[in-house]
Amino acid sequence: MKSKLSVLAGSFLLFAASSQAQEATSAPPQEAPRSQAPQRFGVSPFYGYRWGGGLETVNGQNVNFEDGRAYGLALDYSPLYSPDFKIELLWSRQDSSLDLHGLGGENRIRMTVDEFQLGAVVEKPTGRFHPYLGASLGASLFGPEGLDSEARFSLSIGGGLKFSLLKNLALRADLRGYCTVVESDSAFISTGGVTVVHFHGSTLWQGEITGGVTLSF
What we know:
59% strand, four-stranded antiparallel β-sheet, Porin, single chain, mainly beta
C-alpha cells in the first residue's frame, strides 16, 4: 500500500510541476515599460556679467567698454529627438558705456551691446549633471545712446553645466567668449560728422559668465 501511495504522490507532484512549467512558458511576456518621450524644446533665461572689448580714439587713446551686467534668453530645439544635439538661438545684452573724457564734446556715452546668434550645442547627460559645449554665428549690435547703431558679424564659443532639479527644470551655468569681426580703423562714434572713436584691429573680444534656469518640454 505504501509503495502505491508513494507512486501516486510522485505522479501527482510530477503532474503539478509539469502544469506550472507549461503555464510559465505559455504566459504572454510582460511588456517592457515605455520610455518617456524626449524633451525637444528648452527655454533658458539667464543673468550675469560681461567684460572686455576695446576701441581707440582719434588721439590714439584706448577706450574700453565698461564691464557690466548681461542678460538674455536661449532657445533650444532637438530635431533628432536626441538630448545630445541641440540647435540654439541666443540673445544676450550687455548694458555698458564709454568714458571719452570730454573728447569731441562727449563725456560718457551709455550704450548696449546685443548678441544675436544661432548655433549648435552638444550635451552629454551624466545623471543629474549635463555638461555641454556650443558654438554659434550671428551679429553684434552696438547701440550708443542718441547715436546710430552699428552691426557687425560675430561668432561665439562656450560651454557650461546644467543640474537637473526636476523632470523639466534645471539650473544652468554658462561661460562664453564673443568675437566680433570689425574693419580696422573704421568709424564707430562720430559727432558733427567728425569721427571720435573707431575700431582698432580686426576683431573685438568679450567674455561673459551667466547663470540661470532651463525649462524643458
